[in-house]
Amino acid sequence: MTSLPDFPYIEPIVLAAIAVMALATYATRLGGFVLMGFIPISGRLERFLRHMAGGVLIAIVAAATYRGDPAIWIALPLTIGLLLISRKAMLAMIGGVMFVALLRYLAVF
User: Fold this and answer.
1) Which of 8, 68, 81, 85 is the most exposed, fewest CB within 10 Å of its CB?
2) Contact residues for 10 (Cβ-Cβ < 8 A; gap 6+)
3) How far is CA 31 from the centre of its chain?
4) What percent of the chain has pLDDT over 90?
5) In sequence order, what are the residues at sequence separation of 6 or more whose Cβ sits closer than 8 angstroms to the Cβ of residue 74?
């Protein structure tokens, strides 16, 4: 009979920290829903909330591009083109990341 592999020991304080972070994340998300329940949603606020995620994504991409290497700079127009053609942000992000990974793997940059 084969025995199960030994799992690495994890300190209880590490597990407690992970649990506290998970609870804090859940409380933040739940708190947002609860607080928004008290605010009347106007058309302007609805448009803002709908487009806010895209704005955050653009800020992250812009910061990565500014600090990035030439592989990222080359992949950015490809990613934008893929987004414009497919109209699917997730597909464009995956394509851009894969292209950067390919350029780095081939040691082009």
Assistant:
1) 8
2) none
3) 21
4) 37
5) 99, 103, 109
